[in-house]
Amino acid sequence: MSRRIALGLTVLFALAAVIAGQLGPNRQRIEADLTRRATAALVAAGQPDTRVTFIGRDGLVVTSAPLSARAHDVVAAVDGVRAVRTRVVVTQTIPDRTQPSVRRVTERVRAALAAGVADTRLRRELAAVPPLVFETGEAGLTAESRAALQRTAALLGQHPHARIRVEGHTDSRGGSQTNLALSRVRADAVRAALEELGVPTDRMTVTGYGEARPRVPNDTPAHRAENRRVELTAL
Questions:
Q1: Cβ atoms of residues 216 and 198 within 8 Å
Q2: In which element (H, E) is residue 210 found?
Q3: Which of 3, 30, 102, 162 has the most CB atoms in a 10 Å sphere around its CB?
Q4: How many structural domains does the chain have?
Q5: CA distance linking residue 88 with residue 172, whole number of Å
């Protein structure tokens, strides 16, 4: 007889464990669903700052005194809610720990957008500066290029946090390694000129591409002259 009782208890405990395992996730789903629908109902009732949480089907509403009665009725009317308790806070606004984080994120987004607008404007302004071109095989700056660099330095002064890439290029005449070295010398000459005009060196990155990135085909003297250049790109 005692063996039958022990066996019966074992079966009951096993069934209880199975039921508990099934009810756990189901309870979480119920709580999440009720929270979602009750929150939506509060928002629709003009109480977006009222908070509601659930343990099983029992709700807890946290709000200010003037809103508590209405909030209780709104949540109690949600289908599936069994009981509702109300907790009144002293202040008129509900404390929200997420607000400082939201403000910080908003400030970062605004700063990023402002920086993006400034970068776009600087790129457009740099593109309007006359081209920095060179004689064949030379790295010396022409009078026109020096005038263009004065304008560039003034633009960079208006964007004190902007950085630029100084890119040197050549035409296709000469060996590729010679052209690569020449393009770097041209870029260095432009960097040095900008530094003399007050642009800090750490705001400039210098690179040379040789003949690898022509702006136009190297098929005429005019096109080759256009390819012997230094370009300035906002980073």
A1: no
A2: none
A3: 162
A4: 2
A5: 79
